[in-house]
User: What shape does this take?
Amino acid sequence: MIYIASLKKYVGKVQEDILTCEHLMSVRGDVKIKDFYEIETIATKDDIIMLKSIWGYHENPNKFITTLKKLEKNKVKLINDYKYVYWNIDKYKYLQELAYIGVVPTYLLPPNKMNSIGDIHIFIDDICRKNFFPAVVVKPAISASGFLTNKYRFKKNNTEILKKIYENKEIKFIIQPYRPSISRGEISLVILNGNQCYGIHRFPGILKDKKEPLILPIESVPDNIKDMGEQVFIFFKKRFHEIPSICRIDFVKYQNKYEIIEVELIDPSLSFRELPDSLREYALNLFLFLI
Assistant: This one.
């Protein structure tokens, strides 16, 4: 059985999951979209799990990791493999490992600086002052969809932001410089089975104001981004002795270059719904090689 893992509230409601399921069913009939935590109770050694719409795992990462370890112990196959998922959970750790390639500078807000709102204020201000950052983004190291993500402006009133951080001091936070170019969106590079397939220009916004992503044929993706994507996969080969099956790397422009802002190996949204028919067929066919 092949399980496309979702969370209970998203099962059968996400177009990307449905498209993936239908395509796999055309070749393999034994495909189901199921709640991830239900799969854990029924999956057996010969089953395959593809993580898809599991958004929200960051709200209880310990439960998520415990479930993964049970599945791994039972020798259930996971796409991407377990080692990539464990590596990809903590943004601070993996961005440090990729820093030599060119990532958005990322700083840890240490637990010993979380004893009071004043301590947090002093620490973030010091980072802004020393690095000449007019603003930074503070967010959890394990996060998704803007969860507890705030823009902190140096020498401005950040009282409410500081209170939110302090109220959630049990969470590991990271600090990154705010790049103004993010207002024009970020570019994602989608790599399936080691093939650089296409780019996605994602735009900021919420709900009805959010612009649909723009699909970029691979030849339209900036060379700098493709070169950095190749370097990330060279890193994977050295670090893990193989490459992940599904990968999305997000980039933001800074001055005349691009920086990696995120690598998504756990539940990468691949914008299948927005792909032109021929490109969607190509991308989905690559999934057949995953199983």
Remarks:
- The domain at 107-178 is CATH 3.30.1490 (Dna Ligase; domain 1).
- The radius of gyration is 20 Å.
